[in-house]
Records
---
Amino acid sequence: MHILNLMPYPKTIRQAISFDKLWEKYGKFVKTYNFEYKLLGNEFSDLSDYYSPYANIKVGLTKHSRNNRICKLYHFFLDFN
């Protein structure tokens, strides 16, 4: 099942809530989510400034253990407003 189907946040960002605040809440939510593959270090890294310093794009990274390998999962938020 996809994380967005379980997440208590809107899939489409509304103007009533701050894009930055929603991203912050999402990062906290990801740390508590029970992933199928173990979240390593209970970490959610915000890479937004590195990948998109001038755009309303947020990029996050989590690392998971799957079949004795470390897998990177990238999270993207886009602000279409």
---
Amino acid sequence: MRILGQTVVPGETLRHSRWRWKLGDFVAVSGLRRHDGTVVASLIERRRRGQVRVAGFPYKAADETIRIGAQVIAGLDPALLDRRILVSGRLSGTTLVAGTAAADLLSLMAQRPSRLSIEDYVAGDMQSLDLASGLPVADGASLTNEAVEARAFVSARVEPDGQIHVESLQFVSDPARTGGLSRPSEPGFGHRRNPPGMRPSSPKDGGLGPDPSFDNRGQGPTGPLGGPGPNGSAGRRFNGPSGPGVSGPGGPPGAGPAGGPPGGRRP
């Protein structure tokens, strides 16, 4: 299914549930983005119509439009290209007219945390480590003994200069052996190690909470249920929070205290 130009698939918790939505519904989607740009949804909730939002790497397409995934975005500062941002705005036809756009994850926190615990899709090949969310990390490749790609809990420390050093990886599912880091299936995603202009930081549209815990699970696009997805599946419009981000009032579930996996879950 396609939501605001993003490909969304149900995760394990939703795979066997009945869809309660129809074309035109507004819903909130929480999930994790894979390296190919697909959002794996863990939670979908109905919401009132309002602003739409989407997170990802904006890029300039061949037709000179600026896009995140396949979603055309108008009014976006070109200086924000090729860095992970969160865009909020309104739909005009099929175009997202940007109202606000924010980048730089940790620099927007009221208090910079010294440690992070993140749930993310991880790809590594013993030479580099890549997080699908786009959060830049300084090291951690040595924690994988072969080329892998899997969902994992990432524990890291944050230096005063903002560099993030990965200390441990705990895989949630069996790592998929690959021939190297995955490549994106659609523009604007995948294999971005320290993308240009990207600093380790993270806003969330619901507002910054008092706890500097890091929640990386609200990566679903924000918008109405759309048309068919690339594989012909029924499209749905989603009005959902985007991440990664700091837990804040009204944000999706999943934030947990630093030093433990998000959502208070134990791996």
---
Amino acid sequence: MLRYPGEMEYNNYETNIMSEKEITMEEVAKHNKADDCWLVIGNDKTGGPKVYDVTNYLDDHPGGAEVLLDVGGQDADEFFEDIGHSKDARDELEKHLVGTLKLDEAELKRRAEAAAKAAEKGAGGMNVMVILIAILAIVAAYYKTQM
């Protein structure tokens, strides 16, 4: 997205100018029907959660409209990422951008806890690796003394 003066964004995928918008999850939740379907997709690794209006794309979605309607009005990032969408799918998604998700205090706290838990889990894996290397070193030293 290219930025122009006046807090505007130019969407490269369409030839329109749209103002930058922050949308609450409460607002997204209202858009959960076939004639009005919004999704939240994105996370800290992908530039943050964004809101997309996929109403006009429902009939064109390769997996069928029902897949999108099942997560309409919700955070669909995990489902989107689990499928492993192509670059073309991600480019198509950008055509439907409405704005960014405004994170409230509860959501910020939830994300911080999830990040801490993930970091803790990752660090635990490293401890196991250190222990395995130490055991291998002891075994190697033992065999060397036996020769």
---
Amino acid sequence: MTRKWLLIIGASTVAAWFVAPPLGEELGYAFESWRMALLVLAGTTVYALVHTLPRPKEPAFRPRSSQTPVHSPAVADGVGLWEQRLRAARKDPERFDLIVRQRLREITADRLEHRRGLRLEQARDLLGEELHTLLTTPVTTVPSEAELARMITRIEEI
């Protein structure tokens, strides 16, 4: 049952407290006060429960690969997007810094937090000096393809 319906039930119960006795008297029916009190108590309880229930939380972190089948078009699009980003940033350190390094930093920080409970600043030993430096300081030279592949493999191992 949704929150909306629980609110409607609670409001209807409270409204019944005020509407039922006069209507019952016109029809020749006498309401027992304990039943009305019980009805109002039930409505108030429902209303209070609805307002104290926590809102649904965000789903737990899941890597993209577990959400999308490997052979789906979405994976191919994602790979193509990364190829374009890397090609565009291959010789331009500023572009690499803005496009590639920032995204690698976000991915690594998420993995460290969710899998190890660490912040990026605390993980120097775990990441290794080369990868930690790449992620925490602006780059002056773009890493070679082999260096980048080695660093990405290290991120995947976290």
